[in-house]
Amino acid sequence: MLKEFKEFAMKGNMLDMAVGIVIGAAFSAIVSSMVDDIIMPPIGLILGNIDFSEIFIILKQGTPEGPYATVAAAKEAGAVTWNLGLFINALIKFVIVAFALFILVKGVNNLRRKEEAAPKEPPAPPQDIVLLQEIRDLLKK
């Protein structure tokens, strides 16, 4: 059983998948930083110094009752919040990741189409066919 597990774990596809997951996690961290630290601050500045991560609606007051300056303060007071800004950030992250994956898949598909469209040499005929063709040619002479 251990030998079978080792064969399974060492298959090329399994290793490729593990590498893909690690790279995906790193890519996700980069996208999160890009959205939170690069994209959203200028958008918030343009819209009047709004911090999108702190846009929320209070559904139920906590103790003590609000207004609360931050989502963290509202949660600490036990308030139930609807975190619209965090959802907008997550939506932007999703769109960026989905677009990057679209570009990747499109590139791979283009490479596959080029490989399929490339002219292929016909397979060499079997040796007995070659021999019979030579005999036929000799008999014609």
From TrEMBL:
It comes from the Bacteria. Its main location: membrane. SUPFAM superfamilies: Gated mechanosensitive channel. It is found in: Cell inner membrane; Cell membrane. One of its GO terms (cellular component) is plasma membrane. InterPro entries: Mechanosensitive_channel_CS, MS_channel, MSC/AndL, MscL_channel. It is a multi-pass membrane protein. The chain crosses the membrane at residues 12-35, 84-105. It holds the Pfam family MscL. One of its GO terms (molecular function) is mechanosensitive monoatomic ion channel activity. Keywords: Cell inner membrane, Cell membrane, Ion channel, Ion transport, Membrane, Transmembrane, Transmembrane helix, Transport. Belongs to the MscL family. Channel that opens in response to stretch forces in the membrane lipid bilayer. May participate in the regulation of osmotic pressure changes within the cell. Homopentamer. This is Large-conductance mechanosensitive channel. It comes from Roseibium aggregatum. The gene is mscL.
